[in-house]
Write a structure and sequence with these properties.
Shape: globular
Number of helices: 13
Strand content: under 5%
Helix content: over 70%
Distance between the termini: 38 Å
């Protein structure tokens, strides 16, 4: 075995073409990179955000020390002390729970409706010609413009808020899936049909997996629209007995309690950053598994 190995190695050394081909083959070998959920990977994502937060707090403190709007804009120390005090009471955690439950329900409905609409529109040409531009128009529609209609239709209830969340985020889900389908090579679709895949099987085993990266990007954008729609809805639709984040912010505004209002805004910002990090990590994992990133640097 040793002799055969040495002979093959010697033959490759004598044949430059074989050595070049072997070098190209080595490029196909997987490289060992960091695990996507390792401490180093998580820290690589977290530290830029921490740096940005530190810079914002530093600028905020400098503005406060200059005395500009001193009685209106409290300093970071006052606000974080207020936030810590609110965290000691159950009202804030109840508000976070109610808001997140609304967000999850609304976003889940958006994904379901947007995925069905996107799947139909992307593959049925007459339907796309009729409604393609309408989906984009709905995506650009300000979510707050839907609330008068939603309140008339559902009243001042949670259903009105969820209705606006769906209208605000489902078009992004649909457009993400449509874009992903548009960028599938036609040769790949013809190969699937040649293999005898039915329309349902073609979607399940070829179209949906191939459009997954664009679909995830659409989901990330849809979540941003859903979160903004939810915050606008909770500021406009105050439901008794349901202390949502928007309701707390509205109460602080009515009482001119700037420290409490900024503390609630920080909670909204932190929740948004955490969800955005989860979507970004999922997108990175998908791109890594599809060979779209260098595993050595992922």
């Amino acid at each position: 075995m040793v002799r055969l190995t040495s002979r093959s190695a010697g033959a490759e050394a004598l044949d430059p073409e074989a050595a070049a081909l072997a070098g190209l083959d080595n490029l196909e070998l997987p490289t060992t990179g960091r695990h996507p959920w390792s401490a180093r990977s998580i820290w690589a994502v977290v530290w830029p955000k921490l740096l940005a937060i530190g810079l914002v707090i530093g600028v905020w403190e400098i503005i406060h020390l200059t005395g500009w709007k001193k009685f209106v804009l409290p300093g970071p120390g006052t606000v974080f002390a207020n936030l810590w005090n609110q965290m000691q009471h159950i009202v804030l955690w109840q508000a976070i729970d109610i808001t997140l439950r609304r967000a999850v329900i609304g976003f889940a409905l958006s994904v379901l409706i947007g995925a069905v609409v996107g799947a139909l529109v992307s593959r049925i040409k007459p339907l796309r010609a009729a409604t393609g531009s309408l989906i984009t128009a709905l995506q650009t529609m300000p979510s707050i413009a839907w609330f008068p209609f939603a309140i008339i239709l559902f009243g001042a209830t949670t259903n009105a808020i969820i209705f606006v969340i769906v209208l605000g985020s489902a078009p992004s889900v649909a457009n993400g899936l449509i874009t992903g389908v548009d960028y599938i090579p036609p040769l790949l679709l013809r190969a699937g049909k040649t293999m005898g895949l039915s329309r349902v099987a073609l979607y399940r085993h070829l179209i949906l997996p191939a459009s997954l990266p664009s679909f995830v990007s659409g989901l990330k954008q849809a979540w941003a629209f859903a979160w903004r729609s939810l915050m606008a809805g909770e500021l406009l639709v105050i439901i008794l007995g349901q202390p949502s984040i928007g309701a707390l912010l509205s109460a602080d505004q009515d009482q001119s309690d700037m420290a409490s209002a900024i503390a609630i805004m920080i909670v909204i910002l932190v929740l948004g950053i955490v969800i955005d990090m989860l979507f970004s990590k999922a997108d990175a994992v998908i791109r890594r598994r599809r060979g779209m990133t260098d595993p050595a640097t992922a």
